[in-house]
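Dear colleagues,

As part of the handover before I leave the project, I'm documenting each prediction I ran so the next person doesn't have to rerun anything. This entry is a single chain, and its sequence is reproduced below.
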Amino acid sequence: MRGIKIGLSVACLTVLAWPSAAQEMKRLTSAEIQSRILQNTITGAGRAGNCTFFDHFAADGSATAKYGTYNDVGRWRMGDDALCIKWSKRPNEYCLSFFGNGTAYQVVNPDRGPAPFPFAILAGRQG
């Protein structure tokens, strides 16, 4: 079973670039995470880079995921400056830390290691 993985397809989303030292990323607070992703879609490429994902987070706490032919629904909640998600097809909830500098964003899933994955934010429901 494929999991939802956060990343970036540079070929598709050229607006994001790795930040220079002058564009340092900072960890986003719970309020900042909500203001950026609530009612919007985060998108990028999985670890293999062969498929773009679209995760939408609704105001009522519901979430939808599309990753190639994989689809899922779930619930999200705010943790300690993290977005916690429980998908119906995955056994455990996990919490994501978000980082940004105003123009570029990254997410860290501690369950998958310390490496950040770039992603983009699309207005509204996409995918």
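The chain has a mean pLDDT of 79. Residues 21-122 form a domain with the Lipocalin fold (CATH 2.40.128).

All the best with the project,
I.
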